[in-house]
């Protein structure tokens, strides 16, 4: 009876957990389990799962039915729920009394029955091979092609397609069910690792493997950014970047490694075999792949893969022929000298032993789409169609593919085909240190560079991006010699490398003052035009003709900004590309700023809002600014996307920086000042208009709620452009019209660089705001960058941001001086007891501080004791959250003593802290004495009956407390039932 009531009582929580994501997957998986266990019959299932009906309605019907079916069904339902819900979504639900689920034994007679009893596992197995199963059903005559099409409707997710297939098969009878089961059996056998007999690669295969690995090794042992000046072995400079999974994953402790990228860690879709590594421009995606390639070629990692085929999307753009997969592999990676067919057959037979990598999906001319199906590896198709089908797994199923891309180019269509997504967040602070030391063989120089970075934290923030760290290290002489004028912005850094390269060519000729640019103006314009037209046509590799058209001379090439393209096997003439695509963007920006031929509309078009998610992946506006030849070329490309948004945004950022007041003297003799002034006005107008657009999008607040702005992706970019201009007047103007109480910038890829820009602009807000930066990569350096805007923040939310005690030390030192600062949330960072002394100081000093949330960090009893010291002297704190730390009973006792006499505390959460009954009894004292406390959260704390008795007794003296949460403690069902009767405010 109790379990039935539990389902009823938790109806709201269950509905929320099942449906709030908006996806029907949880409900459908629960239904699969209940069907398989025989708790629902087919008619029940159809009554619940009514197509087209709202998800919540379906879920409510399910709950009604489960309740009316009685205790056993409720037990199983809770068991199914527990299995299906991710831990955090199930956290608010009590599963007391649920059944553990066991798969039903397969001793029944018919295949149709097996389809039901094994439904959950069949759904998961079918997801990866729907097409094959459908084909088998069509060939055997059980399905018509209309049946297949209906199953395959693209509005269904892969798991829904699998369920539709099973439901259809059910109506076709026993022999259709047999076909599906047989097909799955064969599929499983073909996927399981082959035994040694089957896997005997021929001599020719082994020769090919050797040829491929030596070619991969040759291509990956040097880093191309050093190509123009010196050679640098990848081994000597490679520095680990920060990798993390895009999805929360419980089984990952510690940082991800390169091997984890190809391993099973963090898999979200078992049926898919594409792993995406995403990261911002210059964050090291190509270098990471290069490292993987080298490790494989040397035999030091990824040895489960016999062959690795590396592709660059940039180079695939130049392939205009239709190719088969076989031709793609052999012609673009490595040509087998003999026995091509045999080698290809081996690849087809052993997909799990093969790895493909595709670098820079964002650079492909076509945006990803899964509309055009192509399944046959020997049939030809345009290369992008092959690529898209490989990624989806409709071609070469089972071959693992690792794809890299900038995040902006990854839409929902691609996401649904991913096994997992790994984020590459550039260098950590210790990574920067390590890189600089590797870059400079002289340790004194390295130490000086690092020292100068410590004194310029804006620049240190920029160095989290490997490409900028590379420039800064490369230009160490300029950096160390520039004293006060040390670079602050990305544009400053790129100007530094520009000057460095020009002067590198004439080391003896010391260019006086600002004349260096004028001296090299023609080179800048030639390369600028090449870069500008290239961006407009998604072209990153330039032929001799391209160079000629833009007037690029041999002397220009010698400056070192262009490097010769590697492995252009299909062409014999020399081809060039910029050292890095961000360098191409910089030259394009220089061209826009300096050229006499720049169209009047170029700057406004560059700044037009171009959110990829809004425009469906491409922006056509920029094309109109191109010279007519480039436009024609673009039209000839047919479905080619125009310039990609991320690069346009980078160019716009550089244009803002180049036109800033500080750099105008550089252009004095390069461009008429009236033209310059006009361009500056255009940029300022565009930035102001861009900001206005965001402000207009803010909805009016619902009564009683704060006015809140959830930043659109372009917001951070505009802020960065304003920062590049380094004119506080512009920042002030932009902010003067913003009136919000809460600024939400969650999941916006905010790192230290973005924090610098945010603080620069937000400090001009007129009224205090809550600044919510949850789920970014702010880190300690970012925290330091935020300090200038702390005075305007009344609350700061920094959940999940890699912040350590050191960041907190600086943050609190500043926060104490800020009158408005009242709330902070730091859930899921890297805090230890060492930070608690700072919070203690804050609590002692600020008698108006309201909320401190430190959940899911590493705070122990010692830290709790430190906090208690501060709490004793504080009379304002209303919310204290220490969820998921390890304060234990001693910590709870210390907090209880400190909070006993608090007249302000409303809410205290110590979920999952191992406080035990001793802790609970100590906390009962707060309840006894408090006149303010409303809620106490103590789930998952190993509390036994003794502890709860103390709480019950304390509640007898307190009418203010509304609820004490006690789920998942050490209590039997009977105890829970009895105590609920005695005290209704206890929630189990
Ligand atoms: N892990 C690393 N170790 C050492 N240097 C690195 C590392 N990652 C990147 N770099 C430096 O930064 C430069 C740019 O990195 P890379 O080209 O890999 O970035 P990316 O993310 O692929 O950029 P984009 O998206 O713009 O193509 C490299 O050429 C190299 O000089």
From TrEMBL:
Keyword Flavoprotein: no
Pfam families for the chain: CARD, LRR_6, NACHT, NLRC4_HD2, WHD_NOD2
Ranges where the CARD domain occurs: 1-83, 107-189
InterPro entries associated with the record: CARD, DEATH-like_dom_sf, Leu-rich_rpt, LRR_dom_sf, NACHT_NTPase, NLR, NLRP_HD2, NOD1/2_WH
Any single biological process term in GO: regulation of apoptotic process
Primary location class: membrane
Descriptive protein name: NOD2
Gene coding for it: nod2
